[in-house]
Amino acid sequence: MYLELDGQGPHYGQLVRALKAAILDGRLAAGARLPATRALADELGVSRNTVLAAYEQLRAEGYLDSRVGSGSYVAALETRRPPRRPPQRAEAQSRYIERARRVHVRGVARIHQGLRYNLQYGDPVTNPALSSAWGRELARAAAYTGLESPPAQGLPALREAVCDYLARRRGVRAQPDDVLIINGTQQAFALCTRVLLDEGDPVVIEQPHYFGARQAFAAHGARLVPVRTDREGLVCAELPQEAPKLIYVTPSHQFPGGTVLSLPRRLELLRYADAQGSWILEDDYDSEFRYDVHPLAALRELDGGERVIYVGTFSKALFGALRLGYMVLPPALREDFIIAKYLADFGSPAIEQMALAKFIAEGSFERHLRRATKTLKARRAAMLQGLRRYAGHRVDVEEGHAGMHLVAWLRGYTPERLDALIALARRYELGLYPIAPHYLQPPPRQGLLLGYAGLSAAELDTAMRLFGRCLDEMG
Hints:
Number of domains: 3
Structural class: alpha/beta
Number of helices: 15
Distance between the termini: 69 Å
Helix content: 40-55%
Mean pLDDT: 91
Strand content: 5-15%
């Protein structure tokens, strides 16, 4: 029996108060049998006479009933727990959490969870057999992975597999020592803030951009400098005169606009970073999925690995529950990032790393990518056809030729009217996502981020028909 004595006064009085509290708050229910006096005395380290005296006091006050030959029992009392005070959120205990509370918008990407036609970006459902295949890989890996903590930099087998994969698919030449295994792209942002930034340091971000990166930088206290994008990607002519500490870009498939950073601008950006002493964070988040276009060389490959930190993730290519990604680091920063990773979590899970290393080395990963790319290409075509058929001239579509989403700009819509459209669509079980959260300032037009990775081609046709119906009803 657990009783906590308060240490105030004689043991007899402490025990009386502890038992009363247990009875009044319901831990000792009516009719419950109390321990024998000798057993409770031994448990609490007090004399038996102390327990006898406490029981007698509680009987006198009506808390206990005695039954000859049976012991002491809690009396049937009308007890009520005192009302609980509503939980109060503590004041921000650090500058970091004060900023994080301001910038963090919970669930931006998941506001329509559970809807039948949820056009959420970024959670691919392309291979129903992937779950069982991954389960088998995990079981195999568990059998031959050591039980000790993995190296903070990541298992050598996975770092080697990443290098081989990048050389084949992206033309990125790297050595295993250049690679750091991380828990998804979001950890890459966190590590960059710790290694590269102090409060107030300027960070260039694209406009528009991935809001998860913006939130990570802003919570750390960075000063965000948005730079416009157009059909050739980041407008390098508008980069600030003041040297930014970090430049965050998505050159292979600008998020969320869908453009590709042109080769002249890639070279211009690299010259700017070299002249200013800035670091470039190249987020290559979904370049595995390209349709009818040949990718340009990665910034890291053009740079030779001097100023560019290259980041990739397996969460988009496989499934969101797999929180594994990688950074390819410049030699000058390698040890600092490994230190930061070690201090963050000692290293990513070893069994998942080994399973993924085997999955890549045996060719299963690239077979999955070929199958997924074919499926996503068909879904993209279904969405484009549906938009042309059901939405027509009422939207302007940024088609893009990669990834898992499209951008649709709505003609003549205000922010209030867009909110009404999203609410109407929800009644039809259709989940629509505004593009505005990906802008630091309000966008020039109202638009939607339409994800097609989670629905079949037939479901996407239905979703676009419902979208057209909503547009009709909005007038």
